[in-house]
Amino acid sequence: KETKALIEVLTDQHISTDVCNVILMSIDDNDNAMVEPDELVEFIGGGLHLIFDNKRKQRYIARSPAHKIIVDFFAAVYLRIKYGRHNKASRK
After folding, report:
1. What is the value of pTM for the model shown?
2. What is the mean pLDDT of residues 39-58?
């Protein structure tokens, strides 16, 4: 529930529980049903590189709706890192 809410707030998109589960499973490299700090760091680091590689990003987005949301999430995380915490009006 918390991850779903976080993704929805950062991307301004409603996502299903199934999509959220796909995202969480893609982070969990060792399949222990837990997102460990090193897995999260690797996932976000890879995602931040992905958003700047347009060809790779387009291929990734084409995989599924969940993959597009992941890219939107990374873009939102990047903006938060670069510009700090802003309200919706100042991001547009």
Report:
1. 0.71
2. 90
